[in-house]
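sry for the spam today, last one i promise. struct tokens for design, 483 residues
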């Protein structure tokens, strides 16, 4: 079943509140990963187009920064309401360009909308400090000001939520921005910005550009000294390139990068809860999530039962077109993703892993890989060290708590970890020792607009969501006052 969607399927760039063609008039095709058919196109921006977007954001900056927080709050609240109003149409669009199952897409839209609601509430809570200097001669007054024009770069795996998780705090803080979404899923970003305009976001406050030459347009933007902030979500590899670039202009950076989440199950865990948690942590978005459980470490006494039950649940999932409401697992984003997942599974099997479910791509149109569970996975299997970004769960047995912690920490990443145990003291002890920005204890999900989302080690810098998310778009101004 393919739902009609009311949002436009051919998009120009959105600059200064107007839809405008790119300098060259060229477009980029957008494909449906379920069918490999073209479903739309977006304008292909050049560096000159990108600088037009900087002009628009810079011109709107002072006016937006001077807007009363209450007014910004009310506009953001309206963005939330409009996104909820259009949730079904947006979900259908996300399913079509990203491939994820409609149920996942709907959940994403509602999650994405929550960032507008949360930051509508935070916009009126910009506080400062006042204190006496220790020497007694002055007062220390600290206030928070918007950092300025921001470049927001987002990935394809959560095309709505990764955009709103940046736009909402930027606007709440009083910043204007240029959003550059991934070329795989640009239609959602344009649909969101259309709603923002309807909600009353003034011209130039949010600009959207798409480009087949991401590095050229980003470099042009980052070389413009009016740009003061880079907020990036994507791979660690690209994050490193952008950090180097941002260093030249000493631009304030927030980086949400890759993950390699361990999922640790102790033998005292509630196994039903652990299986339910594993299904969410692994299969939300078909495994294409930075928070996806990448390595399952299960204590010996329950390992065989856990692996069998997980294989049975994974094997029962309905795999199909993203927009078909019966689908529980859609396609991967493109052919390269299927090839990568296939290579990782084949490598593990070659090194001794056993397949309990799946283990192969589906032979049909679209980019499908079957939900897969592997057991007896050897320590040198590549998929334990790399982000799988697909529906594959490798299970590894451990014996002692210390061993589980060491295995969990044996990665350059540190985004999120999952721990299942009925012993709360052990759960908290292990949570404290795992090197990650977030831990889900007896849960398969951490994402919450009211919580600080982010990683340590090579998983990133800074936090999104909570009050922290807004501070990423603000700078502390210290005024030393002779009272
Ligand atoms: P990616 O790094 O390839 O691309 C992300 C964005 O950067 C896209 O908009 C892309 O066009 C742009 N880009 C690519 N090369 C660039 C360059 N040289 N200069 C400037 N921009 C460039 O990532 P992806 O494949 O779109 O997304 C998957 C990755 O994102 C995974 O590693 C995943 O873990 C990560 N991710 C992290 C989080 C988080 O919150 N930590 C959330 C979602 C996804």
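last one done:
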């Amino acid at each position: 079943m393919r739902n009609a969607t009311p949002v436009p399927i051919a998009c120009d760039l959105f600059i200064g509140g107007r839809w405008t063609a790119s300098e060259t008039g060229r477009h980029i095709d957008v494909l449906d990963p379920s069918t490999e058919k073209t479903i739309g196109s977006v304008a292909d921006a050049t560096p000159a187009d990108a600088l037009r977007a900087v002009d628009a954001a810079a011109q709107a900056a002072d006016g937006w920064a001077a807007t009363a927080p209450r007014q910004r709050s009310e506009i953001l609240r309206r963005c939330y309401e409009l996104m909820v109003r259009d949730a079904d149409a947006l979900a259908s669009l996300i399913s079509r360009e990203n491939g994820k199952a409609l149920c996942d897409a709907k959940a994403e839209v509602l999650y994405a909308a929550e960032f507008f609601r949360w930051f509508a509430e935070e916009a009126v809570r910009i506080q400062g400090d006042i204190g006496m200097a220790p020497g007694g001669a002055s007062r220390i007054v600290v206030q928070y000001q918007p950092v300025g024009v921001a470049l927001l770069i987002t990935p394809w795996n959560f095309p709505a939520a990764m955009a709103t998780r940046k736009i909402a705090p930027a606007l709440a803080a009083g910043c204007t921005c240029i959003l550059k979404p991934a070329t795989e899923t640009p239609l959602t970003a344009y649909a969101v910005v259309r709603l923002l305009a309807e909600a009353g976001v003034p011209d130039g406050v949010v600009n959207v550009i798409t480009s087949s030459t991401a590095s050229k347009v980003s470099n042009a933007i980052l070389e413009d000294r009016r740009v003061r902030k880079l907020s990036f979500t994507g791979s660690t590899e690209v994050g490193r390139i952008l950090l180097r670039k941002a260093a030249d202009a000493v631009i304030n950076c927030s980086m949400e990068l890759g993950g390699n989440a361990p999922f640790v199950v102790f033998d005292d865990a509630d196994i039903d809860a652990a299986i339910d948690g594993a299904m969410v942590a692994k299969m939300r978005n078909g495994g294409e999530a930075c928070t996806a459980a990448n390595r399952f470490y299960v204590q010996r006494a329950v390992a065989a039962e856990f692996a069998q039950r997980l294989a049975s649940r994974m094997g029962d999932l309905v795999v199909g077109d993203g927009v078909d409401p019966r689908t529980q697992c859609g396609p991967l984003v493109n052919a390269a993703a299927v090839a990568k997942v296939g290579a990782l599974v084949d490598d593990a099997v070659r090194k001794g892993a056993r397949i309990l479910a799946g283990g192969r791509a589906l032979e049909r149109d679209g980019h499908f890989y079957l939900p897969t569970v592997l057991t007896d996975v050897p320590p040198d299997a590549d998929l334990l060290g790399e982000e799988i970004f697909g529906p594959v769960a490798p299970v590894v047995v451990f014996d002692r708590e210390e061993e589980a912690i060491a295995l969990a920490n044996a990665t350059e990443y540190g985004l999120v970890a999952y721990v299942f145990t009925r012993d709360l003291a052990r759960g908290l002890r292990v949570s404290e020792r795992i090197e990650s920005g977030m831990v889900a204890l007896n849960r398969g999900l951490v994402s919450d607009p009211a919580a600080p989302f982010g990683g340590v080690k090579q998983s990133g810098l800074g936090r999104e969501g909570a009050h922290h998310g807004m501070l990423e778009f603000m700078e502390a101004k210290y005024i030393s006052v002779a009272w």
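Confidence is low (pLDDT under 50) at residues 1-8. ok im logging off now
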